[in-house]
Design goal:
Layout (H helix, E strand, L loop, with lengths): L1 H37 L4 H40 L15 H33 L4 H36 L6 H7 L1
Helix pairs in contact: 1-2, 1-4, 2-3, 3-4
Length: 184
């Protein structure tokens, strides 16, 4: 029963991670490029469409993914600590809590983007749209956008690192009984 529980929550962890990293890739590269190209002549509607899409992703979707991943980590921790089953936590990294630290950094960056940086960016965009000739607002808006791109890039690299670590854990080869007997 406990094994199945860990397996199920491991799937939720991978689902959350794949939606998060895949969504960043899909929205950051594909959707933004398509919206900007299709609405090149209308920058205000293009900006509004992208802001709406990114708001939904940065708040609802990423926070659900964070929930999946944190609950899965808590379940694994509790099962490993309180279960009578011996839960073998495969260590493929030199340090013990590397995955958890990477996830923690990703969560902090996502909360910073979704709860703090996004409202400021919307305020600057609103001011920029009201006064399109103000160059300082144009520069400030571009800085916010580049900050978002940089944080997305860092989170994507960290997410891919989690996939790598997780994949390495899943493909660990153990010595079989025959290999153990042959080496003796």
């Amino acid at each position: 029963m406990m094994k199945r529980l860990v397996y199920i929550f491991n799937m939720f962890y991978l689902l959350g991670l794949s939606l998060w990293v895949g969504g960043m890739f899909l929205l950051g590269f594909l959707v933004e490029a398509v919206v900007r190209i299709k609405l090149k002549e209308q920058p205000l509607p293009a900006n509004e469409v992208m802001n709406t899409i990114m708001d939904i992703f940065n708040i609802q979707i990423i926070y659900v993914c964070i929930g999946f991943m944190v609950v899965a980590e808590i379940i694994k921790l509790l099962v490993g600590k309180f279960s009578w089953l011996e839960f073998d936590q495969l260590g493929v990294t030199k340090r013990r809590y590397v995955k958890e630290c990477i996830l923690g950094i990703m969560i902090v960056l996502a909360i910073y983007m979704g709860s703090f940086l996004r409202p400021e960016m919307h305020e600057v965009n609103k001011l920029k749209n009201d006064n399109p000739t103000n160059q300082q607002l144009q520069i400030r808006s571009k800085r916010f956008h580049s900050k978002f791109v940089n944080i997305y890039s860092v989170n994507m690299i960290l997410g891919l690192s989690l996939f790598y670590i997780h994949g390495k854990e899943m493909t660990r080869f153990r010595k079989t009984l025959n290999e153990t007997n042959e080496s003796n």
